[in-house]
Amino acid sequence: MHRPPLSREEKRYAAVLHWGSLVGFVVLVATFLMDLAGLVEVQPPLADLPRLWKLSTADYLAATHGAAGWHWATALSNGDSLSLMGIALLSACPILSIAAIIPIYLREKNYVYAALCLATVAVLLVAASGARLFLRT
Amino acid sequence: MPTLPRQPTPRWLPAAGLLAFAALAFPLTASAAGVVPAPAGGSWWVWALGTFVACFFMGIAAVPAGVGGGVLFVPIVSGFFPFHLDFVRGAGLLVAMASTLAAGPSLLRNGMVNLRLVMPLALSSSLSSIAGAMVGLALPAWLVQTLLGTAILAIAALMIAMRKSEFPHVPHPDPLSRRLGIHGVFRDPIAGTETPWQVHRTATGIVLFLAIGFLGGLLGVGAGWANVPGLNLMMGVPLKLAAASSSLILSIASASATWYYLNSGAILPVIAVPSVIGMMMGARIGAHLLTVLNPAAVRRLVIAMLLFAGARALLKGLGY
């Protein structure tokens, strides 16, 4: 198959996305299997889930004494939080990929695209921060 | 989507798909509705397995039909499984994001994506996607369910009515696209052809992607169904480039909403992980079946599924 020539930013974006998503998927599946195999403690217990997953997020957090934000990252001994780490790694892939191409645009003095990438990374970081901007949920 | 040699679809295949889906959905729905007693005690694994199997079939159908997994996942799972809509939307966004992340590297390496086209639209849709996620988690579930049903029925109507253009005619690029350098030569690695392309209505496209991102974050359905017509018919992007670039835009916009759902506690691994694995395994098989399935027949099957699931979501939202 004839492959077209790629720009440097496309090559770098593809490489970071490939490795980032691969690590994310491996962690996601491995931690979930650990969860199912009972290798880690799971809170709330899996048997309680059919009662809990009918609740809204707010009621679920109240019933399980959970908390919003990065609370899950402080409880990585819990199986559920471990699985969330895989999801967080996958969600971080676009941030890493876009951040990786900013230096290329800067070297090319393409300040418009460097600024666009920087703004997108900033938006994703705000989302990742868990900040509640203007609505309470 | 690449043009591949096609063979006639076996007549039994769409019917078998629908039957398999119905066979799976009926006991689960009946159980959820109390018609059939739910398995006692540790029945979480029945639902987790059911989610995996349903997503596997959705993944098979999604690729040949040219839709993302999220648009099938959210109405079907919220309509027929006992999970709260918050968790279904969280899982739906993850499904949409995971599929596009997996496809992204090869689309980029095959020259099917143009980053200059992607970045302005990705910024626009990721910004509004967070706003959609915030509003979606703040609104009452019945209202979101009603909006979801309405949107899914509208998407089905759009899929029926929409015509696509392989290489739209763009007489003059607009000043913004000239300023941003959004143009190029599309080299089709399968057909071995080279076609110059440029875009118009870039500012309108950015506004459209604000609206699409908001809906995607609000309903958790991803947005490939709207991205591709927006890029292809409105901005004049060649169809294959539009489909591939849509995938990368979706991965970025879904990531921003997924972060918001994750940090709001709206992602349950026991729902989300089997969904992602099932959808990705199904999508791989769906991609292989591209050579033997008739995409038009699968598309009709998917439209029928969307009409059914959309009506169910609408009725559920309205309390019926």
Looking at this protein, list some descriptive labels:
heterodimer, A: 137 residues, mainly alpha, B: 320 residues, two-stranded antiparallel sheet, 72% helix, globular
Walk me through what this model shows:
The complex is a heterodimer of chains A (137) and B (320). Helix content of chain A is 64%, strand content 0%. Chain A is an all-alpha fold. Chain A has one domain. In chain A, helix 1 packs antiparallel against helix 4 and helix 4 packs antiparallel against helix 5 (111-129). The model of chain A has no long low-confidence stretch (mean pLDDT 87). Chain B has one domain (12-183, 194-317). Chain B is 72% helix and 4% strand. In chain B, strands 1-2 form a two-stranded antiparallel ribbon. In chain B, helix 2 packs across helix 12 (295-317). The longest helix of chain B has 25 residues, at 85-109. The termini of chain B are far apart. Chains A and B meet through helix 1, helix 3, helix 4 and helix 5 of A and helix 2, helix 4, helix 5, helix 10 and helix 11 of B.
Task: Give a nutshell description of this structure.
The complex is a heterodimer of chains A (137) and B (320). Chain A has 137 residues and is mainly α. Chain A has helices spanning 8-36, 49-52, 57-63, 79-107, 111-129.
